[in-house]
Amino acid sequence: MTLPDIANREGLEGYDVLWPWRRAADGPLAPGLTCVFRVKNEARNLPWVLPPVFEAVQHVVLVDNGSDDGTAEVARRVVAELGAEDRFTLASYPHRVARAGAEHLATPPDSVHSLTHFYNWSFSHVRTAYSMKWDGDMVLTREGVDALRDASWQLERTQAVLVIPRHPVSVESESVAWIDLGYRFLEPWVYPTGPETTFVKAFEWEVREWPASARRVVLPEGLVVELKWLDTDELTHWSSTDAFDAYRTPRKKRELDVLRAIESGVGEGLEGLFRIQAPPGVHVVDHLTSTWMATAPRPLCLRLDY
Predict the structure, then answer these.
(1) CB 148 within 8 A of CB 35
(2) Strand partners, 179
(3) What is the structure's pLDDT at 304?
(4) C-alpha to C-alpha distance for 62 and 84, rounded to whole angstroms
(5) How does pLDDT run across 115-167, given as a tens digit for each residue?
(6) Buried b / exposed e across 225-243, counting CB within 10 Å, b at 16+?
(7) Is 10 part of any domain?
(8) Residue 169 lies in a domain
């Protein structure tokens, strides 16, 4: 019997963490890149999100955290349409996960209700040498697909961590959206799979560790947009928005500032926020990812880091 690397404190069968590099029966990790989604109620986004990801990586793991909008069914349908069933793993994580902020801070990291344990359990399904954390609302552009597809084989003999700028997009309607280019939002997304790149608990959320010796590679702007729908509350995964400030949570404060500006009708007055109008018959998400991002002048962002 193989003992788990991280046992959940509730003692629930099937939700301990056993790292893939310790699974002797599976053999060594395969070359390539696996994209790991942790999703809840992302059915609306997945038809845009999944196809370009399957173009860019060798395998996709999607962990559904109790969705009630048909997320799993939509994922299966999209994957079947792509003919990618052999490169897809669908898993269920039915436990309520603490929201970022105060709830997360109060939850032990080895609880099934912890973001930390949820992430470690999700990434324990990876069987390749590299893994990519990805969100169910992030859409790769054509350039993004090409960049990640190239990286997936170039990373083979390195220990690099890829940092990818993403550009938040608030979708108002099928033809209108607002893209925030006021700041460059940077976050590491692609890591080598191994004991030095697991998740640990931080104050507001989980953090993926990586060794100081790892090379940090920042990819260009314009590779990915992050969809936010104005008819949906996009901040329900936070305990409270009252604590957002420019020092501890600057990115979330910016998101809140953008939302309030658009809702108040003064979006065009907020520096770095741009209204996008799609041509007739083209959805604004398709217009942004296939045309607008590719032709917009560089640099895209007004400020370098957030």
Answers:
(1) no
(2) 169, 274
(3) 57
(4) 13
(5) 999 999 999 999 999 999 999 999 999 999 999 999 887 887 788 999 999 99
(6) bbbbbeeeebbebbbeeee
(7) no
(8) yes
Residue 9 lies inside a defined structural domain of this protein? no
User: What CATH number corresponds to the domain at position 121?
Assistant: 3.90.550
Question: Rounded to two decimals, what is the model's pTM?
Answer: 0.94
Indicate the pLDDT class of residue 252, thresholds 50, 70 and 90.
confident
- How far apart, in whole angstroms, are the C-alpha atoms of residue 178 and residue 168? 8
DSSP type of residue 88: E
Structure tokens at 129: 């040498």
The helix (run of H) or strand (run of E) holding residue 37 is strand 30-39
pLDDT single digits (tens) 207-238: 999 998 899 999 999 999 999 999 987 566 56
| 8 A C-beta contact, residue 89 and residue 62 | yes
Task: Say how far apart CA 189 and CA 134 lie, in whole Å.
Answer: 7
Question: What Rg, from alpha-carbon coordinates, does the chain have?
Answer: 19
**Three-state SS at 273:** strand
Q: How many domains does the chain have?
A: 1
Contact 126, 60 (CB under 8 A): no
- Give the other-Cβ count within 10 Å of 253's Cβ: 17
Place of tokens 């890829």: 162
Phi first, then psi: give them for residue 89, nearest 5 degrees. -125, 125
Name the region of 101 (left: φ>0; alpha: ψ -120 to 50; beta: rest).
Answer: left
Residue 303 in any domain: the answer is no
**Distance between CA atoms of residues 79 and 292, nearest Å:** 27
- For 75, the domain range is 20-295
Q: Is the link from the previous residue into 188 a cis peptide, with omega within 30 of 0? A: no
Cβ(38)–Cβ(44) below 8 Å: no
Tell me the C-alpha distance between 251 and 108, whole Å: 25
What lies within 8 Å, CB to CB, of 83 at 6+ separation is none
Quote the pLDDT of residue 15.
Answer: 98
Give the integer Cα–Cα distance in Å for 259 and 178.
10
